[in-house]
Amino acid sequence: MKNYTQKQLDQAAQALNNHEILLIPTDTVYGVGVLFGSLQDLDRLKNIKHRPETKPIPLMASSVEMLSTVVEFDERAAKAAQKLLPGALTMILPLRKDVDSALFNHLSTAAVRIPDEPAVLELIEKTGCPLFVSSANVSGEPAALNAQEAKKALPAADGIVEGSCANQQASTIADFTQKEIKILRPGPIQYEEILDAVKMS
Question: What residues in the chain have per-residue pLDDT under 50?
Fold first, then answer.
């Protein structure tokens, strides 16, 4: 497994562009990621995690503009994103009609977020493309909170970007596709914060 420091993000971005799987520190827990767009890369990622085929992988981007190439933001979701992202919020949003739903297990929605971690945002910018990023663990096992745990959990990854995870807790997941916003997984961002953000004038 190749090691990349945070001063070697150019090399790490190149590795992702070469279809490698990298362990990446985020603002919540350690992640494992591949470039968005390739079903083959996605299958490899799911295989090393032993992730059930029925569970799609969340998408990480560096901006709302980048996410908007994949999902649709209505006014409510746009307000929440403006106030709470970058941050520990994963939003379930409708997939754009021109995006291949096979990348999301043939669902009409995707889980997306913008991490509050400068090195990851820079890495995504350097790849020029969103990343599929899941927690760095075997499915069903606890999430890795540091580089050592990530390497131990997923030794089949091609490389690791060294760093630390500030929150040490997985992101809040909120579904924005229904009339009422629903919390699917509690996390660092509270439901009340989401409601307040949506009420912004």
Answer: none
Give the CA distances from residue 134 to residues 21, 58, 171, 180, 200, in Å, rounded to whole numbers and listed in that order: 11, 6, 11, 26, 30
Query: In 168-184, which positions are buried (b, 16+ CB within 10 angstroms) versus exposed (e)?
Result: ebbbbbbbbeeeebeee
**∠ CA(9), CA(10), CA(14), 5° rounding?**
110
- CB 113 within 8 Å of CB 135: no
Residue 175 bridge partners (DSSP)? 92, 182
Amino acid code (one letter) for 142: P
C-alpha closest to that of 4 among 137, 120, 117: 120
Structure tokens at 114: 């913008």
Q: How confident is the model at residue 168, as a pLDDT?
A: 87
| pTM value > 0.85 | yes
Q: Which tens digit of pLDDT belongs to each residue from 60-107?
A: 999 999 999 999 999 999 999 999 999 999 999 999 999 999 999 999
Does residue 86 have a cis peptide bond before it, meaning omega lies within 30 degrees of 0? yes
Q: How many CB atoms lie within 10 A of CB 39?
A: 10
| CA distance linking residue 64 with residue 82, whole number of Å | 8
Q: What's at 191, amino acid-wise? A: Y
Q: State residue 167's pLDDT score.
A: 84
